[in-house]
């Protein structure tokens, strides 16, 4: 899948998550697309640095601290994008969890070509 459909599906997942979680606000689909783009950029550049810095605590928590890193990325996107709001770390953690579940349902987990015949 190319990156444009992935961004649009992430934006749709963000809209769905905003309906499910009262602590998350998205002004519309355009704002959701902007948030999806910002999250993609932050996940490409900031997230690897945060993972490297927090390796010891990630190992101690058996990888569960990665949800906190995702929540931090979401809070950074909240500060950067108008029309997107998250009311604290707990809502960012819940948004991270819901987005992960929705991305798995939409097939955006990166393993969609796993069962194709070669």
Features:
single chain, 118 residues, mainly alpha, two-stranded antiparallel sheet, 5 helices
Report on this model:
A two-stranded antiparallel sheet has the order 1-2. It contains five helices and two strands, in the order H-E-H-H-H-E-H. The protein has one domain (3-105). 70% of the residues lie in helices and 5% in strands. The longest helix has 25 residues, at 29-53. It is mostly helical and 118 residues long.
* Class by alpha and beta content: mainly alpha
Q: Could you estimate the helical fraction of the residues in percent?
A: over 70%
Order of helices and strands: HEHHHEH
Mean pLDDT score = 90
Number of strands: 2
Estimated share of beta-strand residues: 5-15%
Largest sheet: 2 strands, antiparallel
A few lines on this structure:
The chain has 118 residues and is mostly helical. It has 5 helices and 2 strands.
Please describe the topology of this protein.
Elements: H1 3-20, E1 24-26, H2 29-53, H3 55-60, H4 65-80, E2 84-86, H5 89-106
Antiparallel strand pairs: 1-2
């Amino acid at each position: 899948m190319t990156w444009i459909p992935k961004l649009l599906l992430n934006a749709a997942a963000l809209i769905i998550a905003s309906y499910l979680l009262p602590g998350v606000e998205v002004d519309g689909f355009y704002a959701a697309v902007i948030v999806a783009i910002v999250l993609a950029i932050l996940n490409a550049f900031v997230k690897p640095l945060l993972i490297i810095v927090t390796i010891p605590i990630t190992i101690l928590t058996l990888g569960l601290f990665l949800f906190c890193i995702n929540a931090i990325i979401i809070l950074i996107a909240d500060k950067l994008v108008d029309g997107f709001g998250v009311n604290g770390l707990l809502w960012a953690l819940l948004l991270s969890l819901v987005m992960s579940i929705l991305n798995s349902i939409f097939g955006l987990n990166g393993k969609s070509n796993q069962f194709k015949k070669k």
